[in-house]
Each structure stands twice: as structure tokens, then as C-alpha cells.
Amino acid sequence: MKISAIVLDFDGTIIDTEWPHFEAVRGAYRELGAELTLDQWQHRIGRADNKPWIEDLRELAPSGTDVEELADRWRAHKNAATTTQPIRPGIEELMGRAWMAGLPVAVASSSSHSWVAPHLERLGLADLVHAVRTRDDVEHAKPWPDVYLAACDAMAVDPASAVAIEDSHNGCVAAKAAGLSCVAAYHTVTAGQDFSMADVVVPDLTHLEPGTLGLP
To answer: S-S: 161 plus which of 4, 19, 53, 142, CB 3.0-4.6 Å?
Structure first.
């Protein structure tokens, strides 16, 4: 199989932002005497159309609670923890091999451009990426296919000849709906999700043999 491009999800795929995010929201819940389980959190991963978690806090908070201050404090905790996260195993190597092979690489994310782009710069990956498409660029974010279609359009490639790298059920649904082949590289937060729609499922990309689905 010959492919023409690779499209990477960002959150949870390039770096594990999902665990710091879960821990931060769970911390805010606990301050309000509530509990957030991993099972409850999992359905939110990889999509941008969920009710904002700050709305959950407003519903849980006793009268008089400064919910904005609480959310800002735990959001800062999440952001600080995210900056310590390394690139997930195998990602940088795959991007390097793609560059050497002349394969364009794009990022397709349900997060905002203002979240994704600075992290790519910080991680030293921005120069390896041909295009970044986020929820800012489409009408519907994942699990709809729009952001993957936009990423492929930006590279002028047929989605059927591209491979997506994802970490979540919703992301895989989006990639497959757009017509891409899909590798699911799960992690602690998404390990229990349904990846039956993915073409290949691995714990990280170091378990992916070069040549799988035409990848370099």
C-alpha cells in the first residue's frame, strides 16, 4: 500500500495532554465534594461538542462559590502539567521518517489553533508539519470528519491515500468517516475505549512495524 500523507491528532497522540486534563477537572470536582471517574470522562475525549466542564462545576457548586476562580486555578494546573509532558513514543521518529520520505504530515485537532500551534513550536515539531487544522477551521469538530477532510485538502491529497494517527474512539470515528486509514495508539485514559473501527491498534507507535498501512 502506497500512502500520500500522514495526519496526526494532537491531544493524547503527539503528547499526552489527556491525563493532566482529567486530573485537573477531577481536582476541581473534588474541591466541590464530588467525584469524576475515568469512565465518565472518557466520552468527552476527542470531541469539541461536549458541555464545557465549567458548566458541570456551576451545577455542583454551592451558592456563593467563585466557580471562575476555581476553574482558572485548575486550568492553570493542567497547563503547567501539560508543558512537562514528553512527545509520545514513536511520534517524532515517524515524523522524521515521513520527512525523509517526502510524505507531508498534517495535524488535525478538536482543540483550538491557539492551543496546538504553540505546543508544536515548543516541542520542536512545527517545521515537520505541513498543515495544522483545528476546530477553528471547520463547522463540526470530531467525531465528524470535517477536520480530517480539511487537513487532507490543505495538503492536496486524497483522504483514501492518507493514514491518521489517533488516540481516542471519537478521533478514530472521525478519521474513518473521512476515508482515511487509521492507527489507534491508546494510552492510560483511552485504553478501555472501543477501537474496533481502527485498522491497527497499538499502545504506542514503537509497537508499529515500519511499512504497516504503508507508513514509513
So the answer is: 4
The sign of the CA dihedral 105, 88, 76, 141 is: positive
C-alpha span between 196 and 55 (Å, rounded) = 32
Active site residue 56: no
Q: What angle do CA 202, 142, 42 make, to 5 degrees?
A: 60
- Chain segment 201-214, per-residue pLDDT in tens: 999 999 998 899 99
Q: Is the pTM of this model over 0.85?
A: yes
- What is the Cα–Cα distance from 196 to 77, expressed in whole angstroms? 34
Which candidate in 11, 16, 146, 167 is catalytic? 11
Q: Is 39 a catalytic residue?
A: no
φ/ψ bin of 124: left (φ > 0), alpha (ψ from -120 to 50), beta (otherwise): left
Which is it for the CA torsion 185, 45, 196, 159, positive or negative? negative
- 5-16+87-214: CATH superfamily: HAD superfamily/HAD-like (3.40.50.1000)
- In the set 9, 16, 137, 146, the catalytic residue is 9
Domain boundaries, the chain: 5-16+87-214, 18-82
pLDDT of residue 205: 97
Cα–Cα distance for residue pair 134/161, rounded to 1 Å? 21
E-strand spans in 49-205?
105-108, 131-133, 162-166, 181-185, 200-202
- What are the cell numbers at 34? 464530588
